[in-house]
Amino acid sequence: xxxxxxxxPDPETLDVFxxxxxxAVVGAGRDPDSMSGRLVRNLLAxxxxxxxxxxxxxGIIASVPAYASIDDLPEPADLAFVAVPAAVALEAxxxxxxxxxxxIVMITAGFSEVGREGKTRxxxxxxxxxxxxxxxxxxxxxxxAGTDPRAPMNGTFADFPMIPGNAGLGAQSGAFGVVIPExxxxxxxxxxxxxxxxxxxxxxxxxxxxxxxxxxxTELVLLYLESFQExxxxxxxxxxxxxxxxxxxxKAGRTEAGSRAAGGHTAALASxxxxxxxxxxxxGTIRVDDLDELIDIxxxxxxxxxxxxxxxxxxxNAGGPAVLCADALEAGGLLLPTFSPSLQGRLRTLVRPESxxxxxxxxxxxxxxxxxxxxxxxxxxxxxADTVIxxxxxxxxxxxxxxxxxxxxxxxxxxxxxxxxxxxxxxDSPLPDRVEGCxxxxxxxxxxxxxxxxxxxxxxxxxxxxxxxxxxxDLGLDRSALRRIIDAARVGGDDSGTWLVPRDTQSIxxxxxxxxxxxxxxxxxxxxxxxxxxxxxxxxxxVDAPTVVHKRAAGxxxxxxxxxxxxxxxxxxxxxxxxxxxxxxxxxxxDEGIEVLVGVARDPQFGHAIGLGLGGSAVEALxxxxxxxxxxxxxxxxxxxxxxxxxVMLDRTAGRSDAIKTLQSILMRLSALVTxxxxxxxxxLNPIRIHPDGSxxxxxxxxxxxASGSL
Length: 711
What we know:
Strand order of the largest sheet: 9-8-11-10-12-13-14
Structural class: alpha/beta
Oligomer: single chain
Number of helices: 25
Largest sheet: 7 strands, mixed
Radius of gyration: 31 Å
Distance between the termini: 25 Å
C-alpha cells in the first residue's frame, strides 16, 4: 500500500498477524509434501488455536476436517493464508474479506515479479485490500512465524525450529526468510517473529518497524531488503525505532543502475545504493554488507549491552588472533589502550612470568579455564575497557568447551559488566549445540568480530549524541528574494529543466550567504577587461554556455589572468569552446586548497538528496560522495563532514575547526534552499576550496531547475 510522506502506518492493524485467535488456509493441500500441505501441518503443529483448511475437494486434511469454502467455517477466521493459483487469487481474497478476515498472508506467486500481467494483478490486489481496511502480507512470500506465547505459530512451508527471543526479522526474500532464522538459531539468537514480506503489495518494512517500535518482546530489529517501501517514511520511522532499539539492515542491490538523467557530478554519483546508504546512516540503522555480518551483529546485540565507548580489552592464549584483533580495531576506529600499572599488577599475580599483560593479555598457550576466568574477571571489573574480547585457540579437541563455560560463568557472576564476546577461531564444530544456553556471542573470526563490534560502537555513539538532530528553523535566508530570482530566470527565457545562467546561480549563492569570490558576467572581450579591472587582481574566465556543464573538460576555462591583453585573448579562447556561448563569467582567482564537492540530486524514489565528498575535475573517477536525504538536520550535516576521506584530509588542516563549521553551514543552507525552491533538480558546488586557515570559497557552481514532476 503506497503511502505519502505524511502517512503513518497504524501498528495496531498488524496485531492480527502476530496474535490471531483462529487461522484459515485457503488452498490447503492434501499432499503433505506440497507447499500448502506443509503450511497446514506446520500451523497445526505450532498454533494453539483452531486451524481451518479450505479445499473444496477434500473432506479431511492432516487429520482435521477441511471446508469447501471460507464461508462454511464455524466461526470467522482472524487470519487467512492464501495458497491458490494466481489466476484465482483475487477471487479467494475477495471471499476472505467478505467473510470478515482482517489479515491475509498470500503465499501465492505470479504477481509483480513475473512481468506486466503480474504487475497489473498486484495493482488490483493492492486496491482491493486498500478499500477493505484489512491488511495483507505478500504476495509471493514464504509466510510468517512467531514465538509469542499467546499465539506461537510456524506459518511457513519450511521446517525450521525457531527459538523464542528478542529479535524481530523482516525479510524481502523467501529464501532468506528460511536461512536467516536457522543461522540465528545456530548463533544462539532467538526471534520474537519472522515476517517474509515478499512483493510488499501492502505490508512492508515501514509497517513492521512501526509494529516492532512498540512491541515489548522485540528489542532488536533485523531487516533484509531489496527495495524500500517508501524511503522518506522509512527515514522517519526507522529513526524513531533506532532511538529505542537497534535496527540492523542488510540491503541488497548495490549494483543497480540509476535511471535519472545526470548533467552534473552530484546526480551522476547519486546511485540508488549511494542514496540507500545515506538513508540507512541518516536513520541511525546499522547497515551490514553480508549475511555473516548480520548474524555476528545480531549475536552481539541480542545478548550484550551497547558499548559505552571505544576502549577494547583483549584476552587471548595465542598471539596470532590478538594481532588480527589489533589490526581490525585500528581499522574500525576502536582503541586498544595500555592497561594501568595497577591492573597489570593484579593480572601479573595470576599469570605465568612469560605472559603479556599490557593489552592484549596473552596467556601464551594456556588452556586452563581457571586462569582464563580469573583474568577475564579482572578485565570485566577494571573499568578500563568498554568491551572485552576473549579469544581462545584450542590445542587439543575438547579444549574449547571448558573455556566457553568459564567465560559464561564469569559473565553471569559479574553484574553490569561491559559487553563481552568470545572469539574461537578453531571452534569445535558441535560446540554451539552443546552450549545452547550460553549468554555470550561465540564468533569464529577475529576480524569479523571486531568489524561487527565497530558498527555497534558507532550506533551507540549515534544514540548518545542525541540521535538524528534537528532541522534549523531559521538560517536567515531571504525566501522572497530567492523566489524572485527563480521566477525572473524563467521569465528571462530559461525553460523548466535547464541550467540557470551564471548570473542567476551566483545571485542565489549570494542570497544564501554562501562564501563566493567576486564575479561578473560579461558578453564581450572589452566588458571582460573592464570587469577584471574592477576585481583588481588575477581573474579566471569561464565560458557561459547552456550546453557546457564541465567547463574544464570542454576547454572553456582560463586561469590566473593579469592584464587587458591576457583577458581579451582568454575571452576569445573560452567562448570558442562552445557554439552556443553567451559570453564569459569573470571571477576573482581563488588560492589553491583542498577541493570539495557539495551538491543536490533529485531522485524519483528518494526525493532530494544532499551530497558531500572530494571535489575537483576527477570527482566522478574518485567516486567518493556521501549522501543524506533532504531536509538535513544539524546532525546529518555534521556526520557528512566528519565521516569519510574528507575528514582525514581536514585533520591535516590547521583551520580544521573553522572548515568543519563552514562546510556544515554550506550544507545546511543548501538544504534550506531546496526547501524554498523545491523545483531544484541538481546543484553542483564544485569545487569548494578549503584553505589552510579553514576558510572556504565556492569556486564554481551550477544549478538546474526542473518542473516539480520531472527530473
